[in-house]
Write a structure and sequence with these properties.
40% of the residues lie in helices and 18% in strands. By secondary structure, it is of the alpha/beta class. The strands form three sheets. Strands 6, 7, 8, 9, 12 and 13 form a six-stranded mixed sheet that branches. A five-stranded mixed sheet has the order 3-2-1-4-5, with helices on both faces.
Length: 331
């Protein structure tokens, strides 16, 4: 998973999230994403020590995992996660905050991965709406010479810079209050019965391998299991509504998610008078569809940097930024 792939010196970027920890090298040759649910005491330090086998000359870090509910406060989360990184690596370590590598209060490090992405893109692409859709959340960051987003998750939620939905882990009922099945309008149960990964797997839009999170019921990631979970979302067994009924729920959930994404992109583009979208993350294709619907130019980062880098872009961005600034920043 994380075997050493080079002998020359490089800077390793890390994006430590609540559900996934991602790594990328500044030269773009190395990229990894590991599902590590922090709220379940996932072995973060063990994985970081495996990343350390790459023997980086320095490590640059962005953090979003402080919001995991294993921490009583975000400040506690930042303290714990920075300490874990420091234990795992013996090289210089640089932490990126909402305003860059220069920060005074550790709280400036909270949920700052978007700021690293935006800082790199401001220089390499210019003014744009940067949209990064992962498994859990979607960032919509206006860039006009610099990022114009709020500096905390709270402010970004309030300003439309953050939409709390992703390609995989979002509950269906959070997006789709009711589905039409056999001519009936049926409310989805507000329970943890099915997630967007189930909808996409059932429709053949992702594979079992790319179902990169736990299933709601702890059962399999095969298509039949996903169909059963979709049926359960309307308090039914699969035999009650049939495969067609379960697929109807999946189609409507995916369509509703696209509508929410398009509306969020349209608000941000109009608010900041932007005509170019830069798409990243595992939801890059959906973002590109939304940009096309809105008549906006779209740059897909998979085409510029490669698909693996697009999926872990904040880790790559912070590595690149550290590579440029290493002589100027302090450990």
């Amino acid at each position: 998973m994380v075997r050493k792939v080079r002998s020359q010196a490089m800077i390793l970027g890390l994006d430590i999230g609540g559900a996934n920890t991602k790594a990328a090298s500044s030269d773009g040759q190395y990229a990894q994403s590991v599902y590590l649910p922090l709220w379940k005491q996932a072995p973060l330090e063990e994985v970081l020590r495996l990343f350390a086998l790459q023997e980086p000359q320095a490590v640059a870090v962005v953090i979003t995992g402080e919001l995991a509910d294993c921490f009583s406060t975000k400040r506690e989360g930042i303290k714990s996660l920075t300490a874990t990184v420091k234990r795992a690596f013996s090289c210089p370590i640089y932490f990126w905050g909402a305003k860059g590598f220069a920060w005074a209060d550790p709280m400036e490090l909270a949920a700052a991965n978007w700021a690293a992405s935006a800082a790199l893109l401001a220089g390499e692409i210019g003014d744009c709406l940067f949209v990064d859709m992962g498994s859990t959340t979607t960032d919509l960051i206006p860039i006009k010479e610099e990022a114009l987003a709020g500096k905390t998750d709270f402010l970004r939620l309030a300003g439309g810079d953050l939409v709390y939905m992703g390609m995989l882990r979002t509950r269906l009922d959070a997006l789709l209050p009711a589905a039409r099945i056999r001519g009936l309008r049926v409310a989805l149960a507000p329970e943890f019965f099915a997630i967007m990964a189930d909808a996409r797997l059932a429709l053949g839009r992702i594979s079992e391998e790319t179902y990169a999170c736990e299933t709601p019921d702890g059962a399999g990631k095969d298509r039949e299991a996903a169909l059963r979970r979709l049926a359960r979302s309307v308090c039914a067994d699969l035999e009650e509504i049939g495969e067609a009924g379960a697929l109807a729920i999946a189609e409507q959930a995916c369509e509703r998610q696209k509508e929410i994404l398009v509306a969020a992109m349209e608000r941000q583009a109009k608010k900041h008078n932007l005509e170019k979208v830069v798409a990243a993350g595992i939801g890059e294709g959906l973002i590109a569809e939304g940009a096309a619907f809105l008549g906006l130019e779209c740059v897909q980062l998979s085409e510029r940097y490669g698909a693996k880098i697009s999926d872990v872009f904040p880790a790559y961005a912070v590595a690149r930024l550290a590579d440029k600034e290493e002589g100027k920043i302090q450990r």
